[in-house]
Amino acid sequence: MDVLFSNVKELVALAESQNKPISEIMIEQEILMTKRTREEIIAQMDNNLTVMEKAVERGLQGVHSASGLTGGDAVLIQKYMASGKSLCGDVVMDAVSKAVATNEVNAAMGTICATPTAGAAGIVPGTLFAVKNKLNPTREQMINYLFTSGAFGFVVANNASISGAAGGCQAETGSAGSMAAAAIVEMAGGTPQQSAEAFSIVMKNMLGLVCDPVAGLVEVPCVKRNAMGAAKALVGADMALAGVVSRIPTDEVIEAMHKIGKSMPSALRETAKGGLAATPTGKALEAKIFGKGKVDSDTVNS
Amino acid sequence: MKFRSVFDIIGPVMIGPSSSHTAGAARIGRVARTLFGRQPEWARVHLYGSFAETYKGHGTDVAIIGGLLDYDTFDERIKSAFADAEKLGMTFEFIPEEEEAVHPNTARLVIGDSQGVMELTGISIGGGTMEVVELNGFPLRLSGHYPALLIVHNDRSGVIASVSNAIAKLNINIAHMEVDRKEKGEMALMVIEVDQMIDAALINELESLPNVTQVSTLAN
């Protein structure tokens, strides 16, 4: 099969030996594997970027889900930022609010672009549109941000998992935050190896994160995990750009994530049977939303 | 390699809230609809694992019905799929199963009308990507990445050769091919993924071949 890279080590080696950004290697591999033209591929990514922009815009106007569990937090955060009191600073909180905005739209069954999943769809665009205000990228650079995120996500999806049902939230917001960190580094002028370091630093702090959605809805705690994922992505990127490296190589971190996911009990892999879903309040919310139903049948937490 | 395209990662564009439980489910339904070749009159959907536990919250049920109505992942009509199906006179039921399936997100669709019944098992492997793992009792692996031909035929010598000849005549290259049968000499299924688009002329020619009973196609 025509594949240019199957792990992060190969991806970085290729980018560095050919003196190309990771986004370019991803575009070349896409051409090779799908036999589509560069123009078609870039046009599709441009369209995905537009979908992300619209979702953020809509979320920042304030949306609420049908269940009533989520909505309106993106607006709250933006108002707080405008007061000038934010402790983390505007880039971090802007990313957080835009990640929340996207996931609030998702929870309300609005249109979004999965990155790499819908449940984790806020992190990549949230960080992109926040960093945009700081770095003033061209449209092409913004599209490349998505290709770089995609290159790392491609490795995770094929070598581990991007599914909460298979690997827990570490596979979803964990992957998204790590992918975003790698893309931020490239946009900020870092090296391909620094992108890999940023990815590792973030993923190491996502390991073990379970998928325990209340009532099985992609709302609680998903929206706030996107918020934190965006914040971690920015911190991880800054650390890598400062020269901090991960002692454990990226591909081994991904392998560790995969193994942790496999050993997670099914109650903590998107079955809404354990973790926050199984708390008294989580169960009460489920009963309120769906009626009595299946609650009480099995709330094993192991 | 399960994920082949960057758009499996940055994509799909979709109606929320879950790529695996909504978009992947819609894709499973849509593939079933395409292979069935027409709007089914009824559908029985068995759900396993996480699909069985959380399908209501994720809109897995409306997404599968939306797929059966030929709606894509980003089609806003997914939200009204139940009402739309009822308007078309289609009946459906969802059956959450207790038993463990091959994958935590598995759906087995039994669909039909007065002319026939089809059974398809699909798995949603993350980020909206899905695979068909069983069709009418035949285990198979269909990613949906390439245009595909599914040919039901009698298990006789020469059928594979005549099918591949017809394909080769049109300069279409076979990317992947699988053949399986129920019993020696009984019904068999050929799954052929190709690099080029499949046109109606090829389907007509394949349908006219001896021992070929049904030809379905799947565009990528």
Per CATH, which architecture of the largest domain in chain B? 2-Layer Sandwich
User: Multimeric state of these chains?
Assistant: heterodimer
Radius of gyration of chain B: 17 Å
Our count of domains of chain A comes out at 1
Helix and strand arrangement:
The complex is a heterodimer of chains A (302) and B (220).
Chain A: H1 8-17, H2 22-34, H3 38-60, H4 73-82, H5 90-107, E1 111-113, H6 123-135, H7 139-159, H8 164-167, H9 169-187, H10 192-204, H11 222-241, H12 250-263, H13 280-290
Helix pairs in contact in A: 2-7, 3-5, 3-7, 4-5, 5-6, 5-11, 6-9, 6-11, 7-9, 9-10, 9-11, 10-11, 10-12
Chain B: E1 13-15, H1 19-36, E2 42-48, H2 49-58, H3 60-68, H4 81-87, E3 91-96, E4 105-113, E5 116-126, E6 129-135, E7 138-142, E8 148-154, H5 159-169, E9 174-181, E10 187-194, H6 200-208, E11 212-218
Parallel strand pairs in B: 2-3
Antiparallel strand pairs in B: 2-4, 4-5, 5-6, 6-7, 8-10, 8-11, 9-10
Helix pairs in contact in B: 1-3
Account of the protein in words:
The complex is a heterodimer of chains A (302) and B (220). Chain A has 13 helices and one strand. Chain A has helices at 8-17, 22-34, 38-60, 73-82, 90-107, 123-135, 139-159, 164-167, 169-187, 192-204, 222-241, 250-263, 280-290, and one strand spanning 111-113. In chain A, helix 5 packs antiparallel against helix 6, helix 6 (123-135) packs parallel to helix 9 (169-187) and helix 9 (169-187) runs parallel beside helix 11. Chain B is built from six helices and eleven strands. Chain B folds into two domains: 12-136, D-3-phosphoglycerate dehydrogenase, domain 3 (60s Ribosomal Protein L30, Chain: A), CATH 3.30.1330.90; 148-218, ACT domain (Alpha-Beta Plaits, 2-Layer Sandwich), CATH 3.30.70.260. In chain B, a hairpin with a 5-residue loop joins strand 9 (174-181) and strand 10 (187-194). The longest helix of chain B is centred in the first third of the chain and has 18 residues, at 19-36. In chain B, helix 1 packs parallel to helix 3. In chain B, strands 3-2-4-5-6-7 form a six-stranded mixed β-sheet. In chain B, strands 9-10-8-11 form a four-stranded antiparallel β-sheet, with helices on both faces. Helix content of chain B is 29%, strand content 35%. Chains A and B meet through helix 2, helix 3, helix 5, strand 1 and helix 7 of A and strand 1, helix 1, helix 2 and strand 5 of B.
